[in-house]
Design a protein that fits this description.
Radius of gyration: 23 Å
Number of helices: 9
Strand content: under 5%
Mean pLDDT: 87
Low-confidence stretches: none
Oligomer: single chain
């Protein structure tokens, strides 16, 4: 997990096929090691499902369903617009398959479904493996270090920007630097995750629980509301 926290943002935000493949292979390795560890150590498979697993599973199943070829009659029921598109294509091709997917770009849908499935598997493993405070702190501190390093990198790039990622990498499609990210929204998304985690760690480090402690300060009220 720590490797993915460091690798995925630095590899151009993991938007290239090679970086996506590495991240997905690492997640696959995590799942295999986790399953083998349970079977070889405990001789049983015990999987705890996180809250919200049912709607998440239904969403992943929906994405895979859209890329899976199904009979044309079923496609007519589920998506008449898609069926009409295939009928228009038959007027130019003179024929077509009897089974078609709901997605008009099944290759791209399969690719996105694979990424979503890898993300789901990643969080499932973390939910079942992370049990101690030390593990959580190690992950949060890694996130903070990576976020701070990327922020400093973005500031330095602003001053010495030559139009290339890492100054020697491929040419960027934009004029402004956002660290290793191609899309500025990806950098913002990373900060939206890292900053609240750092704030939570800081609030927890200043918390000294006592039996008779009263909720008085704004920090205590925020902590009590967030805990509830």
């Amino acid at each position: 997990m720590l490797f993915l926290i460091v690798f995925t943002p630095l590899a151009f935000g993991t938007v290239e096929p090679w970086s996506e493949a590495i991240a997905e292979l690492v997640v696959l390795g995590m799942v295999v090691v986790w399953l083998l560890g349970m079977t070889l150590r405990d001789w049983e498979l015990r999987v705890e499902l996180p809250p919200g697993w049912l709607p998440a599973s239904l969403f992943v199943a929906l994405v895979f369903l859209q890329a899976t070829p199904i009979p044309m009659a079923l496609t007519q029921v589920l998506s008449p617009w898609t069926t009409g598109f295939y009928d228009q294509a038959r007027t130019y091709t003179g024929g077509g398959p009897s089974m078609v997917p709901l997605s008009l770009a099944p290759h791209d849908t399969w690719r996105e479904a694979l990424k979503i499935g890898a993300g789901a598997a990643f969080f499932l493993v973390c939910y079942n493996v992370y049990r101690t405070r030390a593990q959580v702190h190690r992950a949060i501190w890694t996130m903070i270090a990576v976020g701070a390093a990327i922020s400093v990198l973005g500031i330095v790039q602003r001053v010495t920007w030559n139009g290339h990622f890492y100054w020697i990498g491929p040419e960027a499609p934009h004029r402004n630097a956002f660290g290793p990210f191609v899309n500025r929204a990806h950098f913002a998304g990373l900060m939206v995750v890292v900053v609240p985690m750092a704030l939570a760690l800081w609030l927890a480090s200043r918390y000294t629980p006592t039996r008779k402690q009263l909720v008085r300060t704004l920090r205590d009220r925020l902590r009590s509301w967030n805990t509830s």
